[in-house]
Amino acid sequence: MKAQLLTLFSFISFYALSQSTINITTSGGSFPNEKWVSITTAVDGGGTQVWGQGDGSYSNGAGLINQDISIAPGTYYVNCYDQYSDGWDGTTISVTAYGSVIGDNGGNSPSDPSTVDASFNWEPGSPELELEASFQIIVPVPPSCLSPSVLSASAITPTSVDLDWTSGGSGETEWELEYGASGFTQGTGTIVSINSNPYTLSGLWQILIMMFM
């Protein structure tokens, strides 16, 4: 006698976090270690700093970046600093969210010839001396329904299976899983709410088909 577990798993919905995900990429140009970026609630580095390169303190972790950032939807300003206050030497910046560009300083390498930095060092007490550009971004609300993908099953037993998948990319932490015997109609299966990935689905005895040989 052999037991064969026949199941069909189908993700039908999930819930997203209130936070959005954006990406900041700086690339090209010369003297990459002179560049530092922050995000604030007001133009020219004003208001509250909600994110800063490195550990967030001025000039820490200076250099080119390609970084995803979790941030609440809203209006912010991206501030571009240069250690020598001589422009970004051709380096460009792009801020994207869910496949769309939400800010890039007009496509120009940040440069403000009116600023003067006599010491040629980072100026923690006067960062405005090294500010090359400040541009607005509007962070959108995350998409409400990006489907998970690449579902895989392992450690299959007659009564349980380990599942894992690739999330949709909008910061989701909860999903609904519908399952049933092979060939079931979606909407008629058993639905469970889950908040971990991977996840062990158990209690499958009711869809076990016994095959006698």
TrEMBL record:
Alphabetic keyword roster: Signal
Signal peptide from the UniProt entry: 1-18
Name the UniProt record assigns to this protein: Uncharacterized protein
